[in-house]
Amino acid sequence: MPIRILIADDHTLMRQGLHEICTSIGGFDVVGEARTGAEAVALRAVTRPDVVLMDLAMPEMDGAEAIRRIVAEAPTARIIALTMYRDESYMLAAIRGGARAYLLKTVDAAELIAAIEAVHRGEYLVDPIIAARVLGELHLTPKDLPKFQRLLEKEIEVLRLVAKGLDNREIADALDWSVHTVSNRLRVIFEKLHVTNRTQAALYALRQGWATLDERPD
User: Fold this and answer.
1) Do 119 and 14 lie in a common domain?
2) Average pLDDT over the chain, rounded to whole?
3) What is the pLDDT of residue 144?
């Protein structure tokens, strides 16, 4: 089955270019194009794409808010923030909102295709140029960290698998658990860490040194 893609960008030429890239090699199906953040949220609900390519600077509703609303409606949504901005505020807003990848529009077509395929598999990607800035921003001192309950060893193992990009079924297979058990354990982990989605949990694991950026599913 082709990977179904929703493109959200307020520039017509950019949408056309992304559409051409995604449809020229086969294996991809562009199911919708949005010109604003609000339109992206509405189209996502109708088209239910596998991957959303989301610009961040758009009218009516910016991309970061659109990402937040989409993830609130569909927690497993796989969104790539694709932007010209290296600014930390854009980057962190997108990641905290639930984006699984943050890429600069300077990537070439091959890199974009590889990123779409990786995110579709459940991986998390940050452009190498800005990865250090993300982790640096998240490297808070102990007094800055919110109060949270200590994680059990098994919960840390679950979090490490989340950071590797595994979905609930894959985690269940790896730990010989049921998917229901994984879902319940993740809910407890999120509550303990005061996070609301898998991306935030994965970044917490990176900050704590429980996972690394170069880890990928086995």
Assistant:
1) yes
2) 83
3) 42
Residue 214 included in any domain: no
Q: Which residue has the tokens 């950071």?
A: 163
Question: In this structure, are 34 and 126 located in the same domain?
Answer: yes
Q: pLDDT tens digits, residue range 120-179?
A: 988 877 655 555 555 555 554 444 444 445 778 888 899 888 888 888 899 999 999 998
Q: What CATH code is carried by the domain that includes residue 167?
A: 1.10.10.10
> What region does 149 belong to: left with phi over 0, alpha with psi -120 to 50, or beta?
beta
Query: 189 near 151, Cβ under 8 Å?
Result: yes
pTM: 0.64
Give the strands of the sheet with 28-34, arranged side by side. 28-34, 3-8, 51-54, 79-83, 101-104, 125-126
- Beta bridge mates, 33: 7
Is residue 218 domain-resident?
no
> Which among 87, 121, 137 is the end of a domain?
137
> Per-residue pLDDT tens for 1-47?
899 999 999 999 999 999 999 998 888 999 999 999 999 999 999 99
Are 45 and 132 in the same domain? yes
